[in-house]
């Protein structure tokens, strides 16, 4: 009996060795599967282009006994466009992302989010301090390129000649015939990356004018959806089709590979423009609030994506590994930069953390400038000229608060094209007889009153003994904008102030809020944006106003930052009616 048992044991060991050495997946899976018990569910939302590779890898991992802490893990993978999930997370944190719109009521926040770019994480973290995902390591990469019909790219010397963003900017802004386009950068990470690169190319000298010109050119050919944009590329190679179709647009390398795989009449060239734009980096973001057991399961899933087999699946989808190499099945576009085709590096996840190298301030500025340039508005600007605006600002070479604020206002005015309508008021106390406000320029099209508005801004000076008649002025301004409300644009009031209401002869807060509630009409919305400067602002007082009207309050203790918060405020305006 004993010797027979030992023989049976030897046979079993031999069989096990054959199974392992022979690489029998069935045997391995059965043995591994027995090591975990129970089941833990993990919800993962992934950008559609990477989801198939993630799903296939996770299914194999699951079949091989995928577990965390001895518990089997079942991963529910949902394909979700990054902009749609960003809207859900923004709504969860009671913030609004510029251009993103309302959340889809059918989507829920997952345990793990795999968007196409860290820029989504940066934008959300910038607005919602409570949004602090963990992990964030990149699991894939797709460079952002300038996509151009091959015949036009060849006319620029492609693929031998390298093209820079400065070269493209010059062609876009000097009327050389390049028809440009972009996927709405508030809703598309590749579009945003291209926007950031163009903005950097336009810096210095007369950069503001060059950037504005480029943005207006892009805006003419912008699309809300990527499929709509690529449909604008030429469908025939004759000169007329090339001239009338879309000539250049920032897209991901994966977009170009996918487009060319369909054998279009005119293939696209991927121009790897220098300096290199921020790539799509597919961060693996574990959502805040996920319990430790699920966080451990998420880590195990992330490890499963750090394999050669996953890189090969990415390659078949037109995506690179995080280190820039690619797996089998990758159809590299002509001129694709190294590293090319080699084995993954020793540290393949060195592709970046959540937030990558993106500068939140630069990102904010670019989106704000884009929104200001492309969303037509009807705005009444209301400038505080109370005596405190004469205070000096050490960080601005001792210029007055008034001078710093007026410089920001003049810079903002340069962004608005002639489709905008603008009016200008000043306010203090008893500024115009018994009124606390004075109209300098009535609300009207900038096509006819731009010079009047610039001259008026240059003439503004504070009233040395003036207090802050904020409540009376706000009520009057609201009525003024409402009287001429325009259905085809964003109607707004932008008030610049360094204080709180200080007017013994004016209405009180309760009266102001009650009258604003009575005036408010959801069919004719008016957004009130209040920009507070210095440490004399009562932010709570101002927010109680915008809670009634809609809009927002933006406060900076450093007056030199007024230009930045002005742009940020403009970016958060709702889209103009179409």
TrEMBL record:
Residues 324-358 are annotated as: Disordered. Pfam families: SBP_bac_11 (PF13531), VWA (PF00092). InterPro entries: VWF_A, vWFA_dom_sf. SMART domains: VWA. Residues 378-570 form the VWFA domain. It comes from the Bacteria. The chain crosses the membrane at residues 7-28. Residues 328-339 have a biased composition (Low complexity). Keywords: Membrane, Transmembrane, Transmembrane helix. This is Substrate-binding domain-containing protein. It comes from Phytohabitans maris. The lineage of its organism: Bacteria, Bacillati, Actinomycetota, Actinomycetes, Micromonosporales.
């Amino acid at each position: 009996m004993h010797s027979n048992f030992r023989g049976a044991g030897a046979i079993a060991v031999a069989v096990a060795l054959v199974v392992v050495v022979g690489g029998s997946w069935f045997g391995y899976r059965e043995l591994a599967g027995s090591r975990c018990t129970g089941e833990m569910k993990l919800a993962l939302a992934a950008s559609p282009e990477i989801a198939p590779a993630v799903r296939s890898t996770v299914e194999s991992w699951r079949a091989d006994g995928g577990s965390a802490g001895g518990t089997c893990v079942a991963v529910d993978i949902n394909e979700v466009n990054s902009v749609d999930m960003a809207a859900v997370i923004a709504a969860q944190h009671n913030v609004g992302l510029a251009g993103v719109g309302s959340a889809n009521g059918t989507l829920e926040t997952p345990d793990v989010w795999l968007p196409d770019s860290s820029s989504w994480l940066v934008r959300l973290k910038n607005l919602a301090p409570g949004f602090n995902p963990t992990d964030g390591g990149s699991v894939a990469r797709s460079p952002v390129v300038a996509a151009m019909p091959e015949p036009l790219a060849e006319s620029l010397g492609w693929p031998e000649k390298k093209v820079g963003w400065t070269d493209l900017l010059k062609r876009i802004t000097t009327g050389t015939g390049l028809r440009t386009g972009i996927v709405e950068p508030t809703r598309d990470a590749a579009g945003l990356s291209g926007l950031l690169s163009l903005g950097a190319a336009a810096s210095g000298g007369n950069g503001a004018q060059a950037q504005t010109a480029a943005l207006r050119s892009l805006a003419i050919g912008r699309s809300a959806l990527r499929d709509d944009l690529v449909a604008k590329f030429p469908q025939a190679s004759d000169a007329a089709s090339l001239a009338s179709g879309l000539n250049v647009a920032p897209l991901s390398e994966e977009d170009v590979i996918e487009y060319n795989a369909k054998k279009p009449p005119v293939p696209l060239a991927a121009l790897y423009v220098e300096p290199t734009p921020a790539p799509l980096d597919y961060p693996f973001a574990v959502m805040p609030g996920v319990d430790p057991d699920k966080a451990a399961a998420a880590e195990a899933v992330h490890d499963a994506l750090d394999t050669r087999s996953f890189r090969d699946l990415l390659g078949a989808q037109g995506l690179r590994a995080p280190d820039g190499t690619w797996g089998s099945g990758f159809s590299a576009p002509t001129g694709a930069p190294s590293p090319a085709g080699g084995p993954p590096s020793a540290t393949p996840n060195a592709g970046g953390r959540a937030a990558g190298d993106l500068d939140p301030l630069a990102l904010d500025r670019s989106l704000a400038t884009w929104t200001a340039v492309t969303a037509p508005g009807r705005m009444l600007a209301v400038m505080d000229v109370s005596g405190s605006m004469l205070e000096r600002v050490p960080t601005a070479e001792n210029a007055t608060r008034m001078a710093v604020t007026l410089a920001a206002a003049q810079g903002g005015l340069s962004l608005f094209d002639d489709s905008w309508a603008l009016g200008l008021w000043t306010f203090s106390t008893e500024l115009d007889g018994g009124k606390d406000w004075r109209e300098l320029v009535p609300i009207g099209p900038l096509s006819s009153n731009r010079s009047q508005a610039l001259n008026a801004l240059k003439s503004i000076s504070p009233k040395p003994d003036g207090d802050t008649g904020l409540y009376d002025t706000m009520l009057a301004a609201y009525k003024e904008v409402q009287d001429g409300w325009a259905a085809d644009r964003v109607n707004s009031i932008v008030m610049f102030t360094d204080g709180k209401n200080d007017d013994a002869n004016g209405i009180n807060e309760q009266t102001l809020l009650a009258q604003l509630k009575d005036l408010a009409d959801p069919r004719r919305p008016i957004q009130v944006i209040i920009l507070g400067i210095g440490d004399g602002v009562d932010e709570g007082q101002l927010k109680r106003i915008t809670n009634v009207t809609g809009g927002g309050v933006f406060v900076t203790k450093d007056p030199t930052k007024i230009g930045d918060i002005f742009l940020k405020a403009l970016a958060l305006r709702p889209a103009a009616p179409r």
